[in-house]
Amino acid sequence: MPDTSPPVGARIALNNSLGTVRYVGPVDGTHGTWLGVEWDDPQRGKHDGCKDGTRYFRCATDHPTAASFIRPAVKGLSYGRSFLAALAEKYIDDSPAPSKEVVTLGSSHGLIQVEAVGLAKVRSNLADLARLVEVSLDGAHIAWAEQPPQVAERCPNIRGLDLSLNLLPSWPALATLTAQLPHLTRLALNSTRLALSPLPASPPSPPLPTSFQSLTELQLNATLTPWPSLLTILAFLPSLHTLEAGYNSLSLPSPLSPSCPAHVHANLALLNLDTNLLAALPALSPLFPALTRLVLASNRIAAIPPAPSAAELGTLKHLSLSGNPLADWASVDNLRGWCPALEGLAIRAIPLLDGSYTRAFAIAKLPTLTSLDGAPITPKDRLDAELLYLSHITQHVPAPDRASWGRYAELVESTSPLPPLFASEPRR
């Protein structure tokens, strides 16, 4: 890496704390050059880029202690290393190999022979890299990849790669690596910070649209990637089937209709938005017409209104709402309009839905369900649930209010006679 100060946007590690350089320059009242760093752990810093009343830079987060200043040559500071260096350290056996082998130098036309120590082991190590299919290099301080074709020549068969907690600064820098891995289908980038634009004076990188052609699974958890950037990223991942983008403080805009055809992703089937800031059920079908699984656990969804149209989540078969503060059973009723094909639902850890009849009521309200909270629903389960639900309504809900209970009229027509009295259920 360079001997001078890094550019703004570079990633660094200091005693295993990762950060992004947001400022390079002087600080009032001091001499020399400082690096203004936004730390991945916002508890690590001392301020938010404003020191002694002077604003030097802004952070990607609004945490008051996400940033601090350090010297470019402070002890323990690392600007990272290359992909192949990290790969060799983990996957090449470096134990002693004293065996000798006579090698004829090709440039000598057979006239010069030398003794090579450990050559068989070198060949074996190189072959081992070529055989690698699943590679995990999380936390390896990788900041750049070798230019083509160096990676392609050493490890061309990688299909699954974990680069979580590394120092790659941008998607173009990542593309230099992935463009050399034609079989790559699974990529984990959790807890990284990848900008869409390259760093200043970066080496040329392959075009993004041609660098991720085979990728089908991508993990971007805890990357602080905003929603507009996610849509931009998806535009150059044409084969992507599964995307995880949890723990990103996402709050989606409304409406979500694509602003251009490039934002429609035809193949995405599973989207995990666990532990974000979503306050409403997102209407994702216009963006992801093939979406069948959606994880919205541990968000801020307190109510689900009637669906604005039958196609808002029309292809969805599995939905997780566990850990959301749903405030009424009407939200569960309304899922039928949002997700007419829903087969699996998760509603664990929702205080309102924590009664003894929760499972029965949810099954009765949603006739297409075949599993609830991971447990299958048998035909007998459904019959018992619907009878219990009807009995509760007829015994504990005034007649004028019964029509507001989901499927009441439908079940009255199809179920006769009603079972005996049941105990009451908590408020609807």
UniProtKB/TrEMBL annotation:
Gene3D superfamilies: CAP Gly-rich-like domain, Ribonuclease Inhibitor. The keyword Repeat applies. PROSITE patterns: CAP_GLY_1, CAP_GLY_2, LRR. It holds the Pfam family CAP_GLY. The keyword Cytoplasm does not apply. Keywords: Leucine-rich repeat, Repeat. SUPFAM superfamilies: Cap-Gly domain (SSF74924), L domain-like (SSF52058). Residues 25-71 form the CAP-Gly domain. PANTHER family: CILIA- AND FLAGELLA-ASSOCIATED PROTEIN 410-RELATED, LEUCINE RICH REPEAT PROTEIN. This is CAP-Gly domain-containing protein. It comes from Gloeophyllum trabeum (strain ATCC 11539 / FP-39264 / Madison 617) (Brown rot fungus).
